[in-house]
């Protein structure tokens, strides 16, 4: 096999209470990467979209992730890569993670599956460092493992893949810019013990709810007393979207990654559609351009596309 095409899911990092440790892959939106193995070293990158992302390997998150992978591969090979991006950069839906994860999964398949999924996460984290300055894995891990993942520790890497009951995910992406660096900078550096207790109760509740297929427990646990109160001020309409989505039957939800996208989970497809309606009405009234998705959890993460 010399060439391969993969489809890469968007991801919702944090899942409200699990800042930097929980993430979930969704079916839509998704990116595609076509990768060709060459016997001459070097990485070339082409984009088929209009996002004007860098084509130099050292400046592209997919490029630096492949460079990290090749450093642990003994033979001098190279890659030609074509990226088709639907996940808008800076949306809070894991755009950079999708490129980084998709590239290393595709490369591993072309090289005969020699690396573990943990290795691939390690390589792709170099892409996240390029995009945001920090090696975080809460988008990359669900992208590569599928479903929901817990990162118990990043150094050393300790990944816990989690099961989840069938759920629908409604996403709204108001077309405003929230810089990941700004969204990180405004966070409080110190927290109160009473808030920490509430937060870890919610994280434990959410993980238990996912494993026990307990929708009510999942809903009750989708609460964030640390990050959301600070970050939501960067997203116009956030409180109203959340309140009205819950009234429409959402289990709960909040900011996707560092925003500005907002996601809501529901048990039924009809509820997920009703929530999309609520989101559209609100942003329509505010005169803010937006895009919505009604989707479900991606169980497999990055997968091969057969032409
Ligand atoms: P998101 O908030 O959707 O996760 P990020 O803020 O993590 O998106 O990443 C977007 C940043 O990464 C942008 O500054 C973009 O220019 C940079 N970048 C470099 N290469 C890529 C790529 N292949 N795909 C997406 N973003 C890239």
Describe, in plain words, how this protein is organized in 3D:
- A hairpin with a 4-residue loop joins strand 5 and strand 6 (158-162).
- 37% of the residues lie in helices and 25% in strands.
- The strands form two sheets. Strands 1, 2, 3, 4, 5, 6 and 11 form a seven-stranded mixed β-sheet that branches. The protein has a four-stranded antiparallel β-sheet with strand order 8-9-7-10, sandwiched between helices.
- The radius of gyration is 19 Å and the shape is globular.
- It is an alpha+beta fold and 307 residues long.
- The protein has helices at residues 61-71, 95-110, 117-132, 140-145, 180-185, 193-212, 215-221, 228-231, 238-247, 269-286, and strands at 3-13, 22-38, 42-47, 78-84, 148-153, 158-162, 168-174, 252-255, 262-266, 290-296, 303-304.
- The mean pLDDT is 96.
- It has ten helices and eleven strands.
- It has two domains: 3-162 and 299-304, Ribosomal Protein S5, domain 2; 168-296, 2-Layer Sandwich (Alpha-Beta Plaits).
- The site of adenosine-5'-diphosphate has 19 residues, from helix 1, helix 2 and helix 3.
Mean pLDDT: 96
Biggest sheet, in brief?
7 strands, mixed
Low-confidence stretches: none
**Continuous helix count:** 10
Ligands bound here?
adenosine-5'-diphosphate
Topology:
Layout (H helix, E strand, L loop, with lengths): L2 E11 L8 E17 L3 E6 L13 H11 L6 E7 L10 H16 L6 H16 L7 H6 L2 E6 L4 E5 L5 E7 L5 H6 L7 H20 L2 H7 L6 H4 L6 H10 L4 E4 L6 E5 L2 H18 L3 E7 L6 E2 L3
The chain binds adenosine-5'-diphosphate.
Adenosine-5'-diphosphate (ADP) binds next to helix 1, helix 2 and helix 3.
């Amino acid at each position: 096999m010399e060439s391969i095409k993969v489809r890469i899911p968007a991801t919702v990092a944090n899942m409200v209470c699990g800042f930097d440790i929980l993430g979930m892959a969704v079916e839509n939106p998704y990116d595609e990467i076509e990768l060709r193995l060459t016997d001459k070293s070097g990485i070339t990158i082409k984009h088929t979209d209009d996002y004007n992302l860098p084509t130099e390997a050292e400046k592209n998150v997919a490029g630096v992730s492949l460079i990290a992978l090749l450093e642990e591969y003994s033979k001098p090979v190279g890659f030609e890569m074509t990226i088709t991006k639907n996940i808008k950069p800076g949306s809070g839906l894991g755009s950079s993670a999708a490129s980084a994860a998709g590239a290393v999964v595709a490369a591993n398949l072309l090289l005969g599956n020699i690396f573990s999924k943990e290795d691939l996460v390690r390589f792709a984290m170099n892409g996240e460092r390029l995009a945001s300055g920090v090696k975080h894995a809460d988008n990359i891990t669900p992208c590569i493992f599928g479903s929901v993942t817990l990162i118990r520790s990043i150094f050393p890497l300790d990944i816990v893949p989690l099961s989840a009951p069938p759920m629908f995910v409604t996403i709204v992406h108001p077309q405003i810019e929230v810089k990941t660096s700004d969204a990180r900078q405004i966070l409080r550096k110190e927290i109160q013990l009473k808030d920490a207790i509430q937060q870890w109760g919610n994280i434990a509740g959410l993980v238990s709810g996912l494993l026990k297929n307990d929708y009510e427990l999942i809903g009750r646990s989708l609460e964030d007393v640390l990050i959301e109160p600070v970050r939501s001020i960067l997203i116009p309409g956030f409180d109203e979207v959340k309140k009205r989505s819950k009234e429409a039957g959402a289990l709960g939800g909040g900011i996707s990654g560092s925003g500005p996208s907002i996601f809501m989970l529901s048990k039924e497809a009809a509820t997920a559609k009703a929530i999309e309606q609520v989101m559209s009405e609100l942003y329509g009234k505010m005169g803010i351009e937006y895009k919505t998705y009604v989707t479900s959890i991606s169980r497999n993460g990055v997968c091969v596309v057969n032409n």
